[in-house]
Amino acid sequence: MQPFIVTALFALLASYFADLQSVQACAVCLTGADGSVADAYDWSVLFLMTTPYLVVGSIAGGLAYAYRRAAVKKAHDAAAEEAPIHLAWNQKESGR
Amino acid sequence: MARISAARRLIDDQEPPAAVKETAFGGGPPPGPPVQANAPVLNNAKLAVIMMLGAEAMFFAGLIGAFIVFRLAAEQWPPPFQPRLPVGVTGVNTLILLISAFTMHFSVRAVRAGDIGGSRRFLTVTAFLGTLFLAIQGFEWIKLVHFGLTVSSSVYGGLFYTLIGAHGAHVLGALVWLVVVYGQARKGRYTSKDYNGLQICGMYWTFVVALWPALYGLVYLY
After folding, report:
1. Which of A40, A55, A62 has its CB closest to that of B69?
2. Residue of B41, B56, B77, B200 for testing the chain A interface, max A β-carbons within 10 Å
3. Residue A36: its pLDDT value, please?
4. ipTM
5. Which of A10, A51, B50, B195 is the Cys-Cys partner for B111 at CB 3.0 to 4.6 Å?
6. What does the longest C-alpha to C-alpha distance in chain A come to?
7. Residues of chain A whose C-beta is under 8 A from some C-beta in B?
8. Which candidate from B57, B61, B73 shows the least CB-CB separation from A37?
9. Which of B107, B102, B109 is nearest to B124 (CA)?
10. Which candidate, B116, B103, B106, places its Cα nearest to that of B195?
11. How many Cβ atoms are within 10 Å of B157's Cβ, its own excluded?
């Protein structure tokens, strides 16, 4: 018999006799799906899950607003630059 | 004298040399459009502070997450035999800190309008209000320690001092920054065109102030 199969069978047998309560991998699972501790963890996880999206979203929104406002201001300034003033830049145009 | 006579010769007596004539009276292609500075929308310092504030927000989110776990899991909150927190005094303290955000805003607005003296005055008021906030907090902490609420007395005490202490440390840091900015303002560092240092300090101060009502509501009222 292959050593891998022997090991797998032994693990299966050991798990049958093991006390399931003592081999919980997650500390939160000890209290089960219900209970105030599980609820508390749920709310905390939800809060921590949404916060990065809120933070990054706020920063991205703020940057988008700043860039949009700057683009509008630049367009406004460019329109103001095109004032109907033509300065003579050579002798012929100056008429002197 | 020699220069004047040379200029007079150019003007009165003789035809100017071709190079001078061309430069002075035209020739060549017409001048291009004026060069415009390609200034960034947000300068690096402001961007760095925004990133730092994002990291700070996540830091406090972690602490608040821990508070939520212990608060919601507890059968009774505050736990028995633990002193109650001073809600009223801290409420007044919250108002003081909120007013300091407005004075900071007025300081930035004043320097933008060119009123440097007014900006400095508002900075002084902001620093005073921040110091008052910290002093009242410190006074309340001393009383709480006397009543038996310490970091090691319970989870309640540990959470309280960690959350509120972290915020207090941030207020202290912001206050030091404010004093440095005030010193710069006294030296005439800021003008109506260049007031970045003051503005980013204002951003940090606003963050610290905006965080406090959330912490007050969570730790003191909830």
Report:
1. A40
2. B41
3. 82
4. 0.73
5. B195
6. 111
7. 36-37, 39-41, 43-45, 47-48, 51-52, 55-56, 59, 62-63, 66-67, 70, 81, 89-93
8. B73
9. B107
10. B116
11. 20
Contact between A40 and B68 using a beta-carbon 8 Å cutoff: yes
The closest of B130, B166, B159 to B56, measured between CA atoms, is B166
Question: Do the Cβ atoms of B91 and B212 come closer than 8 Å?
Answer: no
User: Residue with structure tokens 């100017």?
Assistant: B16
Determine, for residues B27 and A90 on separate chains, whether the beta-carbon distance falls below 8 Å: yes
Instruction: Confirm if B199 and B94 have CB atoms less than 8 A apart.
Output: no
Using CB atoms, which residue from A39, A51, A66 is nearest to B58?
A: A51
Shortest Cα distance, chain B CAs vs residue A19, angstroms? 26
Ordered per-residue pLDDT tens for chain B, 222 residues: 566 766 666 565 556 566 665 655 556 666 666 666 667 788 899 999 999 999 999 999 999 999 999 999 888 888 888 888 889 999 999 999 999 999 999 999 999 999 999 999 999 999 999 999 999 999 999 999 998 888 888 889 999 999 999 999 999 999 999 999 999 999 989 998 889 999 999 999 999 999 999 999 999 998
Distance from C-alpha of A14 to C-alpha of B202, rounded to nearest angstrom: 63
Residue B43, phi then psi, degrees to nearest 5: -80, 170
Domain boundaries, chain B: 44-221
Superfamily of domain B44-221: Cytochrome c oxidase, subunit III, four-helix bundle (1.20.120.80)
> Dihedrals φ, ψ of B92, to 5°?
-65, -40
Least confident of A11-25, A30-44, B15-29, B201-215: B15-29
- Within 10 Å of residue B200's Cβ, how many Cβ atoms? 21
User: Within a 13 Å sphere around the CA of B76, how many CA atoms are in the beta-carbon half?
Assistant: 5
Q: Which residues of B touch A53 (CB under 8 A)?
A: none
Distance CA B186, CA B54 (A): 31
Q: How far is A22 from chain B (nearest CA, A)?
A: 22
